[in-house]
Design goal:
about 450 residues; mainly alpha; Growth Hormone, Chain: A; about 75% helix; disordered C terminus
């Protein structure tokens, strides 16, 4: 197999592995609060929102050390170990205990930081400036198939049910645990790339993550990775992109946890309210996959760069927020187990709710594919620290959003996303214009990004 073929194979395996793991994890996140609501009359006393807040809070802090951990053990083994912890978190729901639930939340936060840092490094190692857009799209589209499969099962398994039984819960989470473990094993198929570092590239991530059996050299690489993360955090480009990244963290919280809970709480949807959570996840996945395919795989045909895609993303999200505001009761995110009988500015419509799910996924893919692409382009030699910073900002904002989701009415959550999304779009434009100027100075074709 040629070198380029091997790199493409690695990207596909990377995407498929993440697809299996996040088929399990995102389905778990989508139904966690609903399942927990049914458990809170037992000895279990936990909150899905609080768990997710812990996960993303720990994830954000762990990103300070994740480049060093990846430097020591390597990206492939880092992803394998992280996948095991994802599986353990999901397995907790088979026989829930409050202490195990929150302990697993802490552990998966650390694992997630390492997993996504290693993913960014693997993506960049197998790409160049001409293929980073394509590879980002392939990875993102494969990853988002995870929203289809898990939620499709939930839709059919829970159709017509207003209460989730112990048997239903165990069946779902045993299946999700096995799926997560399959994705973890697939990481072993990723093939290592030959070291192509040019002489003098002393600060490159390739050197930081290079192979060495020397404990001293590993420690030096770990320290170098940590220093590089701190240095990159205060660059102009990274600070500007952090606003855009913060927005993706807020949106991640909303579509992966809050919106599904809102749908499940609307009593006017009748006996379909619980199964609609799964159907919503499917429509989010369709939007994510469509966006990844169009704006990633077909990026070579665009001669306008990344800005039009991000502009489309924010417009699509603003339409979705407007429709959700009119369609969903204001107290839906914090409704009790009995649900809510309130009505917003229109009678709740299942069709509008599913349209909004699709728009949320499509807009999210616009932002994430372009963020992955521009980070891989700007920081090709420092990919692990750059992607660690990306996940640090995204996850800390997701943690904050999960925390306030316990208390804020729907209108305030939507307003926060509108404001941060507006400014995040502007800051992304600024960085992209700088990237275009740098390409022009090198005599490269702008459409190559």
């Amino acid at each position: 197999m040629s070198s380029e073929g091997k790199k493409l194979f690695n990207i596909i395996i990377l995407g498929v592995s993440f697809m299996f793991i996040f088929t399990a994890f995102q389905s778990c996140g989508n139904i966690a609060q609903t399942v927990i609501t049914n458990l809170n009359n037992t000895d279990f006393h936990g909150s899905g929102y609080t768990s997710m807040s812990i996960i993303y809070g720990v994830l954000s802090a762990s990103n300070l050390i994740s480049p060093s951990l990846v430097a020591i053990v390597g990206p492939q083994f880092s992803m394998v170990v992280s996948g095991v912890f994802y599986s353990l978190y999901i397995a907790v729901f088979i026989q829930p205990a409050t202490w195990a639930f929150y302990t697993a939340s802490v552990l998966i936060g650390i694992a997630a930081a390492v997993l996504w840092t290693a993913q960014g490094n693997c993506l960049t190692e197998n790409s160049d400036e001409n293929t980073i857009g394509r590879n980002s799209g392939i990875f993102w589209a494969l990853l988002q198939f995870s929203l289809i499969f898990g939620n499709l099962y939930i839709y059919f398994a829970w159709q017509g049910k207003t209460h989730i039984s112990e048997s239903d819960r165990r069946t779902v989470f045993i299946a999700l645990t096995v799926i997560s473990l399959v994705g973890t094993v697939l990481f072993f198929l990723i093939r290592k790339q030959e070291d192509t570092k040019a002489p003098g590239d002393d600060d490159s991530t390739n050197e930081i993550l290079g192979d060495s059996s020397s404990a001293r050299n590993k420690m030096m690489r770990a320290v170098a990775a940590f220093k590089k993360s701190i240095t990159l955090s205060f660059t102009k480009e990274m600070l500007l992109l952090s606003v855009t990244t913060a927005y993706t963290g807020l949106v991640l919280t909303f579509f992966s946890g809050v919106y599904g809970t809102c749908i499940g709480a609307v009593n006017r949807f009748g006996s379909e309210e619980k199964s609609l959570i799964g159907l919503s996840g499917i429509f989010i996945g369709v939007g994510e996959i469509l966006g990844g395919g169009i704006f990633g795989l077909l990026s070579k045909r665009s001669r306008s760069g990344r800005n039009p895609v991000v502009m489309l993303g924010i417009l699509v999200h603003f339409i979705a927020f407007y429709l959700i505001f009119f369609n969903m009761p204001n107290d839906a995110p914090i409704a009790p187990m009995e649900g809510t009988d309130q009505v917003a500015y229109m009678t709740p419509s299942k069709e509008v709710a599913m349209l909004c799910s699709f728009l949320l996924g499509l807009g999210d893919s616009c932002f994430n594919t372009q963020l992955l692409s521009i980070l891989g382009f700007l920081y090709s030699e420092d990919s692990a620290p750059a992607f660690a910073i990306f996940k640090f900002v995204q996850s800390i904002c997701a943690a904050v959003a999960y925390f306030y989701s316990n208390y804020f009415l729907l209108q305030w959550q939507l307003l926060i996303m509108v404001l941060v999304g507006f400014f995040g779009t502007i800051t992304f434009f600024s960085v992209e214009w700088g990237a275009a100027a740098a390409l022009a100075a090198r005599g490269s074709d702008y459409s190559s990004i």
